[in-house]
Amino acid sequence: MLFNSISYLFFLPIVFAIYWMLNARKLKWQNLFLLTASYFFYACWDWRFLFLLMFSTGLDYFTGIKMFEAKSVKLKKFWFFASIFINVGFLGVFKYYNFFIESFEDLLTNFGVTSHFWTLKIILPVGISFYTFHGLSYVIDIYYNRIKPEKNIVDYSLFVSYFPLLVAGPIERATHLLPQIKKKRVFNYENAMEGFYQILWGLFKKLVIADSCAVYANEIFDNHQSMNSISLLLGAVYFSFQIYGDFSGYSDIALGTSKLFGIDLLRNFNYPYFSRDIAEFWRRWHISLSTWFRDYLYIPLGGSKGGMTTKIRNTFIIFLVSGFWHGANWTFIIWGFLNALFFLPLLITNNNRNNISIVAEGKMFPTIKEFFSILLTFTITTFAWIFFRSNTVSQAIEFIKNIFKFNVNGGFQYLTFDRYTIELVFLLLLFLFIEWISRERVHPVFGKFKSLKVIAIITMILIFGVFSEAKEFIYFQF
Amino acid sequence: MKKFIVTILSYLMATFLIMFALDFGYTKVYENAKPRTKFQYFRSLKNKQFDCVFLGSSRVENGIIPTIIKEKTGLETLNMGFQASKLNDIYTILQLLKEYNIQGKRIFIQIDYIYNLKGNSKILQYQMIPFINENEVLNKHFKNNSEDYFGYNYVPFYRYSRNDLKLNFREILLSIAKKKTNAMEGNGYAPKYGTSKNHRLTLPTELEKENVVFDSIIKYIEKNKINATFYCAPFCYHGKNMEFIAKLKNKVPNFYDFSRAVSDEKLFQNSNHLNHDGAIYFTNIFIDQVLLKNNIEE
User: Where would you find the membrane-spanning parts of this chain (chain B) (predicted)?
Assistant: First the structure.
């Protein structure tokens, strides 16, 4: 079930109504209902993988308790590694097995050895990367005595499977979400309205920005050989906005939905395209994943402690793993590598924590230096997105090569769906303007004139939204 | 909670009002704009008279040149072939001729493998959708052919949202700005240029045993005493199962078979569409073998 589908339009109000009706009874009924609704939500995609989700949940629940009750360090370690091994094993089989086999075959072919190993024809269970990371963080936190295991199976299952975050995050922490699940929720009008506003803004980003950009970006990337440099540049920019609108739009809908149920989720995006350097970008983009890698990979590896070599090694590890987490393709690994490379100068010069505050806070315009810093960050980010979007590394290289041919013949080219490549730029400029003036708030509907803003957004969604084909959220595939 | 429900319902009401307003505005623009699509052009011909009207798919649209017919025979001709049209679409356009009082002394209907095809043309559908409530014929067309009929007919603005890549705000602005397209040029003829290499075509082996839409067309023609002639436009010579056309000939009354009338590959844009040179060549053949011949007989 997609957040932008008609079925969700019915699902959400029904679940909302029943959920708050159960409020008068007991918290456990409310949680049980929310868990049932979450499983139904997941089963709408493919009910068979519900068992995998339940197994993964059961495994972490069980090993969490076993670790806590373990009387020896050895036994604790056993349960810890059993959980890690099985969790990562599932992820490996479903997401990475074919990639490793095919890469190994390619390697052998390069040495003149023809081979054909057994590959799996399997579907990637939606959300597996997200719920596996939920489980992993829970198990790691118990192992390091940061939290105690959750004894209530329903509450724990809800922590893993809570439908707003189940398929594409944000990646929650037990320390943040579980206490909210265990606490009685009281309906709060202001909070619920904030949720509604955030859902609306998320829909705007998805239907108007991401899906419009998708139409252009798909056309340009799919036909990159016949596109001139201007079109290719625009195609890359459109994809930058597509993925931002798509994923941050999804996150807004998830956060907004959760607010309707009285539960706050972790903020996932914070106007990343106004970042002044790549370090700031990664503090503002997919925040829940970045912090997950920081806490569960970077710091255990030694983090910033130790010499420069360790820092550089750890930085490359987390960016490469982050790239690989996105998908079993060399394009994602190169995307991660490029980001590490962009990060490197800041790390070496110890400038990676320079831009912590909001850009041009309290001012209408940025300084010239800030403006060019933002532009440079956006440019290098967009460059890396080309690898993220391309199907193969060679396609990405060809795409970039064609940009640098500086072929401007045909100017703004006319696309097969009767549009000039430039047309969408005006909508994106409007979007950037709205985001710029809202950058000190959680989202643009916050603040004064809410009703007016709501009406304006609804009208914009109706007029400029893409409804002809419901497009899946990009991050569903991860 | 009550306050929340009331607020959400007010926003919902506002959304419906906006949808009504947008639907009304968009429809008015499409109704009154200068034609930018072929269907709008067709609508603009209300109460006009033609000697010949050609109906069918892109094989008509790209293959019959009304100006040549007018030049050679003096017959006022209209090419109402629509891309990807199926029999359902042809039947609708045939009925709309009467609805819009567009008189055609002779109607030529191109028929070939579309005899076996179900469904309707999506291209024509988006052109017709702004006018779904204009008359019974169009409404029925969507009722019979579209899964989205309920939304199209009863939910305001749904029809424009579902076809947003074609009927969007951009199109509204262009209509208001009276930006011209080539929809009104050449009495409906749209040329194709060039020659592609792949000229392979495979026709069905058998005719569909029952064809309700075709039967309806025949009944409609008989009932309204329409002077209708069927024909099959040229195919490239490399076509497979060409005997299908012979079977069609046994089924369709008053049928002219031009499937092998053009032998030069260079006159085809692809296996079943003539290019501009091919259209000139074929229109002349059609004039000689059908229009002039019949005029003499008359």
Answer: 6-26
Quote the minimal CA–CA distance from A24 to chain B in Å.
Answer: 13
Q: Which residues of chain A have pLDDT under 50?
A: none
Q: What is the pTM of this model?
A: 0.89
Alpha carbons A192 and A262: distance in angstroms, whole number:
7
Domain tally, chain A: 2
Give contacts of A 459-478 with B, CB under 8 A. Answer: 459, 462-468
Q: Is B161 within 8 Å of chain A by CB? A: yes
Question: Residues 6 or more apart from A385 whose CB is under 8 A from it?
Answer: A236, A239, A240, A243, A335
Calculate mean pLDDT across residues B236-260: 85
A100: domain range? 6-187
What tokens appear for A297 in the block?
């990979």
Q: What is the ipTM of this complex?
A: 0.85
Q: Is the dihedral of CA B81, B83, B87, B92 positive or negative?
A: negative
Examine the domain organization and report whether A181 and A211 are in the same domain: no
Annotation marks residue A134 as catalytic: no
Is it the case that residue B242 has pLDDT exceeding 90?
A: no
Tokens of B19: 């949808």
Q: In terms of CA atoms, which chain A residue is nearest residue B181? A: A418
The kind and range of the H/E element at B105 are strand B103-110
Residue A320 lies in a domain: no
**Mind listing the pLDDT tens digit for each residue in A16-72?**
999 999 876 788 899 999 999 999 999 998 888 899 999 999 999 999 999 999 999
Inter-chain CB proximity B3 and A189 less than 8 Å? yes
A127 in a structural domain? yes
Write down the pLDDT at residue A153: 95
CB contact under 8 A, B164 and A458: no
Domain C-terminal end among A167, A187, A207 = A187
